[in-house]
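New to this. Explain the following:
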Amino acid sequence: MRRDQPGSASQLLRRLGLGEIPLTHDAFHELQPWRAAAHLEELLMTCGALPSIDKYLCSFQRWLPGHLTGIADPEHAKTIRLFATWHILPRLRTRAERSHITPSIRRFAAEQVKHATAFLQWLGERNSTLASCGQIDVDAWFAENTEHARTCLRAFLNWPMQSRRCRRSLSIPKMKVSRRAALSEDERLDTLGRLLTDTEIPMRLRVAGVIVLLYAQPASRIVRLGVDDVIRDGDTVLLRLGEPASPVPDPVAALLLEHIANRDNMNTATNPASRWLFPGRRAGQPTRPDHLSALLNEVGVPTAAARGAAIRQQLLELPAPVVADALGYHDRTTSRLRNETGGTWSRYAPGDHEPGRTPTTHAGHTGDPPPPVPGGLHVDHWA
């Protein structure tokens, strides 16, 4: 894009300097082309000229007005605007304040709005409205649509029932829960060995894949890791995923430190001093987790299946509370997975386990198992 082309980031910056564009996030959300506006907005946040706000929250707020404009029925548009304003956006803001919004969360928010819009149009074709919608309508729509579409519509159906915009007696069919099969332990270790030895695979994908296979981390957490989360204590390297930090085996440590010294996307104007472990191409941002997941799948690391294998191996070797603390999981999640796996720590109680002592302290204190050595890894063959 030429610097003097109308709508380019430089042109928008010039208009901003002339006072033609207010220095606010709301003003940037109305600008077109949206890519140039988003790029400039992120640069301004990085340098402190605009207050920081989650980029995916900005993305949703830019997308919503265009979607509303495309709704032909004014009543439908009004309903969708209320749903997005009072249900979707508050939840996105809460998530952004608590941690961060991932691309999948942003995408799901838009899909909820799209399916709500399609549902209202479908009701109209049946000469019905949201207020007159009956159980027969709900059952018919669920019968005609996919499980993903049903999942997307649930929030919209719950919202009008709670706000008395439709019958409160409606019953929403239960959601089916399906889980992908984990890799076998042999598959996990074979994939791990390939990542440690295959120099044809890009370094960032080898490191990211190893973190998935050893520490059961999703891509959304991996991209939020910074170089400061890699801790050097003498000859020992630790990775801070939870508390305490987890030890990194020698061949993995060497790979990780080599990656830090040669990170991608560090030679651009947007990330000259990035502290992200996996810097992205956008100002102040790490790489996109969905992009990282897609690249890992291309090199033979199916992230969901690999995570499942790694966490289950951890739970066979260590108590669920210790794994949860060290790897940043909720203890309910690790307890459920431990039960499914048939782990040997079902009677473990965190705390001080000296004879005659009542276990009252948290995992990680004296008497507890040490921080987990990743996933039963014996790396001597690959060192």
User: Anything to note?
Assistant: The chain has a mean pLDDT of 81.
